[in-house]
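Any chance you'd type out a single protein's sequence alongside its tokenized fold?
>
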Amino acid sequence: MPLQDRETGLPSKATDLVLLLEDILDVLPNCLIAIDKAGQIVHINNPYCELLGLQKKEIIGRHVTSVVSPETQLHLVARGAPPTRNQTLVVRGHKMLVNQVPIRNGDDVVGAVGIALFTEAEQLLAVARRLFSIDIRNQARPCAWPSKYSIADVIGTSGAMQGVRERALRAARTRATVLIAGESGTGKELVAHSIHSASSRAQRPFVHVNCAAIPKSLLETELFGYEGGSFTGARAKGHPGKFELANGGTIFLDEIGDMPIEMQSALLRVLQERELVRVGGTQPLPVDVRVVCATHRDLHREIEQGRFRQDLFYRINVFRIEMPPLREHLEDIPILARHILSALCTDYELGEVTIAPDAIEHLARYRWPGNVRELRNVLEHAVHLLEGSVLKKQHFPAFSDPADRPLPGHRSFQEAIAAAERDALRDALERTRGNKSKAASILGIDRTSLYKKLRAYDLI
């Protein structure tokens, strides 16, 4: 028996104290796991081992993402990311409500601990019903413009997607304007939501504006609002714009590359001065809004062609996040497909549906020009065709072998030459206002050759 303190009865040796603490943690009803800064598991209690169906010796020393779930953010918290509170995490089919907080040694983060408050969703519902005597699903949202997604919804274990999550968490800790760039369907809106959810403004409004979907004539009033009587049909008391509605929170300007050039100067003023003037108004209104922008366009090219203001680009391109196309992280197809399938089953109130390995392999061979949005559409279509509970290869389109065709955005050598010739012909004709002789002279060819090429490219 180790020596004990006469007053407390606790073991006097530090090692015995650690063993005592581990015994206490093992009898707690909540699942608990601790990791070091490298993400390796250094402690896990018995309830968590039982949930995982593994013994401690099979778990200690392994990376947390390989044991718990690829979707856990615990290893990111151990490296300095903000703690997560009351986040949902699915572990071996169990939906858990977890807190993930850093372990500090002075000012340094040396690890993190994850605690599951509820290991089943039904436990949480039962507690809520007892506390409030109502079904929590009928409660109103506390914010009229809440964000829908968190960083846990940014799915993927590839280096590319881990980089996106780390950049998003880093952006959330700042007030800088963020520009999210990437092809359509890569998840730009999802990342914008996650930045807001992880920021200090998470309980404030998240207002989404699609700059490409609003007519040019209405965009100014949509963004900045208007005073009463400022135009025919205006409300007598006026109307606040999206910037006012987002005050204290975040405004997400989606497809900002499609914003009309004449509106960009007004937006630039709001970003610089942190104030706006309603349409028909005379008094500036101060606004405290975090701005997140997204675009699928090449803004450098838009600037060169005079469709986007260079000074506005500098203002919004403070913190940039590049969204990788799905074809560049095909290794994430399995986890993405299962995550999307789970969400579809919930949306359509279906039972549990799984996806066969041959179907996963089939999906991973496709290049997905429509990115994650196309993957979701394909899975949704397959679910509607399903009779049973397993999606198989035959439920999906017969994608052509990617080796048989060029990647999206890539051209063959002959196609590149043809495109260059066509552009050169058009440029010469524009410069000479259609004068064929002068165009042939500029291009260094005779008129006969010029006419042949014009006919070949349907430019006559």
In short: The two ends are 100 Å apart (CA to CA). The first strand starts at residue 31 and ends at 36. DSSP finds 19 helices and 14 strands in the chain. Residues 14-138 form a domain with the Beta-Lactamase fold (CATH 3.30.450.20).
